[in-house]
Amino acid sequence: MKNALALASALALAGYVDAVPATASTTCCRELSQALPSLFFSPSTSQYNTLINARWSGTSVLHPGCVVTPKSALDVSKAVKIITKNQCQFAVRGGGHNANTGFNSIDGGVSIDLSSLNSASLADDRTYVSIGSGITWGEAYDAFNSSNIGFTGGICEDVSAGGVSLGGGQSLFQPKRGWAVDNIINYEIVLASGEIVNANATSHPDLYKALKGGNTNFGIVTHLKIAAFDFDGLWGGEVFVSLNGPQATYSQVQDQMSQALVDFTANNHLDINTAVQLMTVYLANNQGQIVNAAFGNTIGEENPASLQEFLNMPNQVKHDAGHIKLADFVHQVSEFQAKGYRQVTSSITFSNDFATVRDIWDVTDAIYNGLEHKDQVDWMISFIPQPKIQQSYSTRSGGNSLGLQSVTDDQIVVWLTSRWTDPSLDSMMYAARDDFIVATETVAKKYGTYHPFLYINYASPSQNPLCGYGVDNFNFLKATATKYDPRGVFQKLMPGGFKVSKTTCS
Ligand SMILES: Cc1cc2nc3c(=O)[nH]c(=O)nc-3n(C[C@H](O)[C@H](O)[C@H](O)COP(=O)(O)OP(=O)(O)OC[C@H]3O[C@@H](n4cnc5c(N)ncnc54)[C@H](O)[C@@H]3O)c2cc1C
Ligand SMILES: *[C@@H]1O[C@H](CO)[C@@H](O)[C@H](O)[C@H]1NC(C)=O
Ligand SMILES: *[C@@H]1O[C@H](CO)[C@@H](O)[C@H](O)[C@H]1NC(C)=O
Fold first, then answer.
1. Residue 406 gets which letter from DSSP?
2. Which CATH architecture has domain 234-451?
3. Residues enclosing ligand 1, CB less than 6 A?
4. What is the pTM of this model?
5. CB–CB of 372/251 below 8 Å?
6. What CATH architecture is 120-231+469-490?
7. Which segments of the chain belong to CATH 3.40.462.20?
8. Is residue 476 within 8 Å of residue 380, measured between CB atoms?
9. pLDDT in tens, 255-299
């Protein structure tokens, strides 16, 4: 920690970061220990290591000067006031799922860990759920497992509601209800001043719209109300297809899977109750190359016609499908996404098109095959349909900041989520991440299918997702950040996330 502080002050002297005295976080940690004694953890406590390591990817584990674990919006407000008064650097952790270094933790500063903001309740009239922003989707679905109620949220059990609420939110309900953010009816948020406000259709509607995609530029979200509906569970499951026989060859599987994805995406508006996500997984040490299709029908219809191409794939090594509660489905599909690895993330978006999908598969295979130590890497790429109809649900809740309302095509999001364990491979994988962006953009541009949107929650640090929202939305986010945080607390003191002040759009 001493080294981290020395480094921070050296960087500040060199002008790399906004000058913050190295002693600032010591002062903050001391004051936090007095203001929130039972929620405060210094490096000498036994909980500290558990708290700092509680991240999905080893690449995001850093060493803060202290950790606080607020249990209420008031606790968060107290922490923000202390941090602002003393001008300390800080980070916010929701579910800890973002792999980008510095997004959810910090060396030497204050870590605000929201995992104790995990309340969950259903409104008396069953029209919405109220949840703490630090709850994970797994915890949230478990809480309502016997309520026969549904709401839009993430598919991975350990991702938090807070992180998704500031980015977009892909779910099995997206063809029918849009992004998760389009279903949020209230954000409770602590502003830079420490004030706790509600952002909704009638209270601070500009902030409400900005938060729906605007990331970490406005404050710390503490609670959410998400629209709910009667829901008996899914018919869903997974098909695992080997790329290497026995019935079909590697390139035949690529052709058929690409065609299935493109057909599904083009027809998704005809069956908005069904969603599917593909993931290619090439396991380390030659342990197999498979494609996983995870699917769900949200009205419990068995074997819907829209899924037939996936259900009939050759080379199936495993096939699970059945009536299942959302909680159980989410636990099942998350088995593939275990903690304990190091991870990269990056993504682009393109119009639904067979040639683009198929070439992207080839060019990303070429990156993988060129890796010096590919035997030590699990190479994982997801393809996620983003049908045009998904964008039609935002206006009824006051719009979002994603800039997709006027897209004219069905789209597909491609997402690199590869993993490895040996830190000495980090630079190889960071280079692969950058190559992935260049290669996929090149293919999409070649076919005229490239779209500047990229899902901010999948973006790499070198990408500019806020620019992908379009210049009007970007300017709106900038103006709204200045209005609610005139002193730039979330720009200068909280480095994690994509910042309007650090982004220049060409
Ligand atoms: C395996 C896996 C599966 C995924 N599945 C899905 C999915 O099904 N749908 C989907 O939409 N996305 C999914 N994602 C992407 C996910 O949305 C992002 O990784 C997201 O950033 C994680 O949010 P978090 O709160 O869990 O993570 P964190 O890393 O804790 O937070 C992410 C960022 O948001 C900030 N933040 C978090 N909470 C708050 C808050 N309350 N107030 C202010 N800032 C906050 C953090 O400071 C950080 O910068 C998945 C990611 C992974 C790795
Ligand atoms: C959810 O409820 C079902 C019964 O409807 C049960 O079988 C399952 O174990 C429950 N899952 C969780 C995570 O509580
Ligand atoms: C919107 O904010 C106002 C003002 O804080 C609050 O009274 C109202 O309950 C909020 N609406 C919702 C849906 O939470």
1. T
2. 3-Layer(aba) Sandwich (3.40)
3. 56, 92-98, 103-104, 114, 133, 154-156, 159-160, 162-164, 166-170, 216, 220-221, 337, 457, 496-497
4. 0.95
5. no
6. 2-Layer Sandwich (3.30)
7. 234-451
8. no
9. 999 999 999 999 999 999 999 999 999 999 999 999 999 999 999
